[in-house]
TrEMBL record:
Organism lineage: Bacteria, Bacillati, Actinomycetota, Actinomycetes, Kitasatosporales
InterPro entries: Cyt_P450 (IPR001128), Cyt_P450_B (IPR002397), Cyt_P450_sf (IPR036396)
Protein name: Cytochrome P450
Family the entry assigns: Belongs to the cytochrome P450 family.
Residue ranges, annotated region (Disordered): 67-87
Domain of life: Bacteria
CDD domains, sorted: CYP107-like
UniProt organism field: Streptomyces orinoci (Streptoverticillium orinoci)
Length: 417
């Protein structure tokens, strides 16, 4: 087999990071999986990184402790050249969060947050997610048209996580604005993003201070209270934790609802099957279906940065110390070596160990909440707007051009009011 790992694109290789690629990256990933499964490329930011595209290599790399999450291990960062482009990286205080650190710090912080952010807390939150979902649909149901990204997928996760954290309702629209800034400029100019991160940091620090004085039943109070063998989170650690919960749980869930709804609208047979099952009160297809939507066109296209702390090989390819490694979840999850008919959406797929939530010690902490929001959002949309359909030609839809995430800018729909 032909391995190609330099920047000189092979004549047959579909281009990466163009607008066409953003609309449908899967053919380019299929080419890489087959011809250059561990591929060195120059990212739009100018940074060189390795793309890992096969399922087996991807799963292994995600769990490989020689790959660090801490940007100090990046060779260019170490030499003071180039930036790795993590949004908000200048606000150092919030950046010491789970996705930027390794054991033993990661182990300690993850254990503490797991005591507060429990599956039980998420389960108890289900009625509130249903209420928020219905409230948002009420906002456009009588109109017969909507942009499901702006009016539905975008506000739902931000209000949900704000509620769970204990951000008072009157302050939640500020979060909506800051988050909007972060999502719009995720892959672009950083000025507004840095400002939004700064405002959020100040706000969270004050909120944590208030909750320490007057604890409640919310997640922030839970984070402050959480203890493990006498250890607690410091105020700064609690702020960084609240920030990563917001940041990691926001655009991902927007895209789960957006990409998921879009995939259902493009696959009418599957959508009808799901709608029928839901009408009969059977939620099992919804459960496997959400996992399949994550595999088929998941929110996280590339896992967040990893850096080689020493020389190592992935899939037979030598990676030098300090090199950035990006695991392409979207490519791995369509690997025909792992999934039968990987390009087909099959909501009933059961052998589905997809990597949409990552793998290993950084496996998504918010998966139970994401599943709850995804299931509630899609099931409620299909129940309440049974003839939901796209109101534009799919070719007109635009995808956001960020590096890590994959999601639509808008999703215009129509339905019988
Ligand atoms: C980590 C995906 C929703 C919180 C991750 C990772 C992935 C992921 C792939 C691992 C990244 C890596 O290893 O580089 C998703 C998807 C979601 C979702 C697809 C929605 C469908 C959420 C939500 C929350 C959340 C709702 C919290 C409210 C986190 C946190 C981490 C994480 C805190 C870091 C865990 C660690 O480093 O130990 N997520 N996520 N995520 N996610 Fe999610």
């Amino acid at each position: 087999m032909h391995h190609k790992n330099d920047d000189n694109r092979h004549p047959d290789q579909p281009p990466l990071f163009t607008w066409e690629f953003a609309g449908d990256p899967y053919p380019a990933y299929a080419w890489l999986r087959e011809h250059a499964p561990v591929h060195r490329t120059t990212l739009p930011s100018g940074v060189d990184a390795w793309l890992v595209t096969r399922y087996a290599d991807a799963r292994q790399a995600l769990a490989d402790q020689r790959l660090s999450k801490n940007p100090v291990h990046h060779s260019e960062a170490a030499h003071g050249k180039g930036k790795v482009g993590i949004p908000g990286e200048r606000s150092a205080n919030l950046m010491t969060h789970l996705l930027n650190i390794d054991p033993p710090d990661h182990t300690r912080l993850r254990r503490l947050v797991s005591k507060a952010f429990t599956p039980r807390r998420v389960a108890e939150f289900a009625p509130r997610v249903q209420e928020l979902t219905d409230h948002l649909i009420d906002g456009f149901a009588a109109r017969g048209t909507a942009d499901l990204i702006h009016e539905f997928a975008f506000p739902l996760p931000i209000y949900a996580i704000c509620d769970m954290l204990g951000v008072p309702p009157e302050d939640q629209d500020d979060f909506r604005d800051w988050a909007g800034m972060m999502i719009r400029h995720g892959g672009g100019p950083r000025g507004g993003v840095a400002r939004s991160v700064k405002r959020m940091r100040t706000y969270l620090a004050e909120l944590i201070h208030r909750k320490r004085e007057e604890p409640g039943e919310d997640l922030i109070s839970g984070l402050i209270r959480a203890s493990d063998h006498g250890e607690h989170l410091t105020e700064n650690e609690a702020a960084a934790m609240a920030f990563i919960l917001l940041f990691a749980g926001f655009e991902t869930t927007v895209n789960l609802i957006g990409n998921g709804t879009y995939a259902l609208l493009r696959n009418p047979g599957q959508r009808e099957r799901l709608q029928r099952a839901l009408a009969e009160g059977d939620e099992s297809l919804l459960a496997t279906g959400i996992e399949e939507l994550l595999r088929y066109d998941g929110p996280v296209e590339l896992a967040t940065w990893r850096f080689a702390t020493r020389e190592l090989t992935i899939g037979g390819q030598r990676i030098a110390e300090g090199d950035p490694v990006l695991v392409v979840l979207a490519a791995a999850d369509r690997d025909p070596e792992r999934f039968a008919d990987p390009d087909i959406l099959d909501l009933a797929r059961t052998d589905n160990q997809h990597l949409g939530y990552g793998h290993g010690i950084h496996y998504c902490l918010g998966a139970p909440l994401a599943r709850l929001e995804g299931r509630t959002a899609l099931a409620t949309l299909l129940r309440r707007l049974p003839d939901l359909r796209l109101s534009v030609d799919p070719a007109e839809l635009r995808w956001r051009g960020g590096l890590i995430m994959r999601g639509l800018r808008t999703l215009p729909v129509e339905f019988t009011a």
